[in-house]
Structure formats: structure tokens, C-alpha cells
């Protein structure tokens, strides 16, 4: 591939909606290009997600970009996701720039950041294009969010600034994909339309010949090709960006459940974050994982997990209002296993002093672990290591809450960076369950305490499972997209002379001479 004056070739994967498949297709393109011997990097200028990860250089970025980097066979870096928005309470988000939190903003005050962030995004993309052979960019939401176009730095604003060809992905499983694709294009101004090179249909089920008439009409209406129709394949993606993609039951096991099935209930709080911690359990044979929001849904669970939270105090209040706090406390008194991770660990403590995240001051925790939580202004970011259950553990941590365990508290033993008392464990570390030997030892301990016959499968390798799914994404691109056309698009940019699709406004729908006023 030739390099342009702007650096390495790049393209933007946009979508008709959130969760249309942008992250998946970006990862698939990255994997396929890496197989061709190219140095590939992913990029998402602005990401809104509560699932994040810490890079080797100590920066916080979106989890999806880290997995796209894995698809490329490289380590993630701050340049791959220069702006990360982490939604909290009161319609505000924490703004993370180049891996460091710089403040909180709502939809209106965020405008004050935009010019600075536009420059940060442009510099980050230029950095990657100078280092790699090709960069695959992922958009955010939809490029047709015309109310946000003036300040856009992630979709057509980025494409225009960097002269990127754009593929628009539509999720046909939702229905209305042709209207969504045509409408997305029609709502863009002509200069933006000039960069939209074509479409990709995602999650198709059924006979391809039944789809072809619609594809032909889309080509005729827009003057643009369809670069591929990707079939529906369940369970491809582990590291989803947000709770839109959460299913109630994520485990491989289905009813009926026998005595050797380990039942795991994950409390789905309103501001759940880093729920990707659970992914390693979903690929473990014999483990049934489900998300719960009511006390009775955890009645038969062998393990209840309180996951991370972007708003610990608010989610703890929600637990109490729904009766979940009492149900978790009752389990602990009965000696039934409970695991708290990061924000969930903070909830298990005796007291929480939060003058930073919620400003609530001192708030009583669930009191299930002998610990105190104090929120610090500076966020802790790290990639710690330890030995637990006799096995090495590599993890990452992202938190404002600093937890101090009472020294010499009775019946309390260390657990990773946290502690365990009885059948209640707590740690701030994310990703610990991805360590195979540790995960198996932990699950065996849980099964023993729960009186379950479950025995962990000795051969389950989470890293290999993730790699296999990334390979499957690469196969989707190779088998179902016009890869020759993709290479030409990367090398030459958006074709010249693409037709402008007129907007579907009222004036275009009424006969000549008929007024829309009435």
C-alpha cells in the first residue's frame, strides 16, 4: 500500500445506529489486514463507554479499542482512543483525554472542550498514521446525528478533517436497514456525502437471493456499492462497549441445569461498568451467567457478583431501594458466596466517604467486609500483578475509591489487593478472572462453599477463546466482503464523483406549487 501525504491509508467505519456493529467490523478489518502482513492500528476519536482498560503506559481507554488492538496483534495505546467519556449521574460524564481524566461535563459544558479535543483527535490519528501501515477508524453513534454535526469529532467531522473514505454499517436484524442506510446518507451535507463510499449489511439471516433486490435498489438510489453482507453469527464479541449489548443470560449453559452447573448472578446496576470482567466466566463450560435486577432472581445462584460501577453511591442506593442490598447481606450471613469487584467491593465495605464522585460525604456501606472507602480526587490507574490460590494473576485497576482494610480484623484474609471474610470476597482489580488457573481455583472454592458438584474444565483458555473469536471476525471480512474493493478504497480514498442524494425534506415530497404551510 502506498502512503499519502497524510500518512498511512485509513478509513472510517460508521454506523446507522449505536450497536450496529461498528466495533465488530472494525475489529474484523483489523484482523484481516494484519493477516496480510500489514502493521494495523485501530482508532476511535471519541468513545462513550463505561468499559475501559489500562494500557501498558498507564492510560485509560475504551475496552473495545484495546480488543481491536489485540485483533491487530499489538498493545493498545492512548492514541487509539484519545477521548473517552464515562457517563455518571445527573447527565454528566467524566472526560478522559489521552488516558487521563481532566474533569466532568454535561452535554452543554462539553462544548467548551470541543476545539481542544478536535486537535487532540487529529494529532492522535496523525501519530498512528505515521507509525502504522494502515489505520481503521471507528465512528461513534451515527454520522446522521445532524444536531451534533457542528461539533462532531468522531464521524464526518473526522472524515472531512482527515479525508477518510467512509463505510456505513447497518444492522439488518433490527429491521429497516435500507431506510436507515439511505436516510443516513440523505441527511448528510454534500461534502460529507462525497466521502461515503458504500455500505455494509450486518447480522443477516436468511437466503441471500431474497436480499439482492433491496441491495440493487440501494445501489441505484445512492450510486454506491455494498461492500459486503455479513451473516448473523452469535457470540462473536466479548468486549462490548456498553450495556446495550448485554443479554440477560450470557452463559453457554441453558436449562435444564443439573447439579454440576455453577450458577452465577451478576447484579446489573444502572451505572454498571467494566462488566467485561464477567466475560471469562461465560466461556467456562458448566457455568451459567445471568444478569439480575431483583432479589428473587438470585435465589438459586451459587455466586453473586457486584460488578464495577461509575457511580458507587448512587448504585448502592438503587440496591437498597430494590431490596437487593438486604438479599446480598442475607446471603453473606448464610455463608453463600459473594464477590465484589471495584465499585462492588466498595459497596461491601463498612463506610464510604465520597466527596469526589457523588459529593454525598459519608455513606454506610453494606458492612460485609471490614473496610473503609475514601474517594480520592486522583484516579488510580495500574496493571498490578499478584499470586492468589497459588497462581499468578495479572489485572488492571481504574478507581477513585481507596480502600483500607482494618488491620487484624478477625476471620479476614487477604485476597488480591482486597480481602475475604467468610464467603465474601472483594477486590478493586479488573480482569483477574481472565487468568485461567486463578479462575479455576476461585470457581472450585465457590463451588465447595456453595455445596455444588461443579468441577472447572481444565482446558479452558480465555485468551485462546478471545483469539478464536477475533479470527472469526477476520474470517467474516475475508469470506463476505469485497476485499479487493476494500484495498482499493484504502489506497485511493473515496471515489470521485459520487452522486449527492437529496434530503427527504417536505419540499421534496410535495408536488410543484403546493405549499407546506397550513
From TrEMBL:
Q: Which Pfam families match?
A: CbiA (PF01656), GATase_3 (PF07685)
Q: Does the keyword Flavoprotein apply?
A: no
Q: Which Gene3D superfamilies match?
A: 3.40.50.880, P-loop containing nucleotide triphosphate hydrolases
What residue stretch is flagged as signal peptide?
none
Q: Which residues form the CobB/CobQ-like glutamine amidotransferase domain?
A: 263-438
Location of the active site? 342 (nucleophile), 430
- Per UniProt, residues of the CobQ/CobB/MinD/ParA nucleotide binding domain are 12-236
Matching entries from InterPro entries are given as: Class_I_gatase-like (IPR029062), CobQ/CobB/MinD/ParA_Nub-bd_dom (IPR002586), CobQ_GATase1 (IPR033949), CobQ_N (IPR047045), CobQ_synth (IPR004459), GATase_3 (IPR011698), P-loop_NTPase (IPR027417)
UniProt entry keywords in alphabetical sequence: Cobalamin biosynthesis, Glutamine amidotransferase
- In which pathway does this enzyme or protein participate? Cofactor biosynthesis; adenosylcobalamin biosynthesis
Q: Where are its TM segments located?
A: none
Q: What family is this protein classified in?
A: Belongs to the CobB/CobQ family. CobQ subfamily.
What the protein does comes down to: Catalyzes amidations at positions B, D, E, and G on adenosylcobyrinic A,C-diamide. NH(2) groups are provided by glutamine, and one molecule of ATP is hydrogenolyzed for each amidation.
Protein name (record) = Cobyric acid synthase
Species per Swiss-Prot/TrEMBL record: Nocardiopsis mangrovi
Highest lineage ranks of the organism?
A: Bacteria, Bacillati, Actinomycetota, Actinomycetes, Streptosporangiales
Its gene?
cobQ
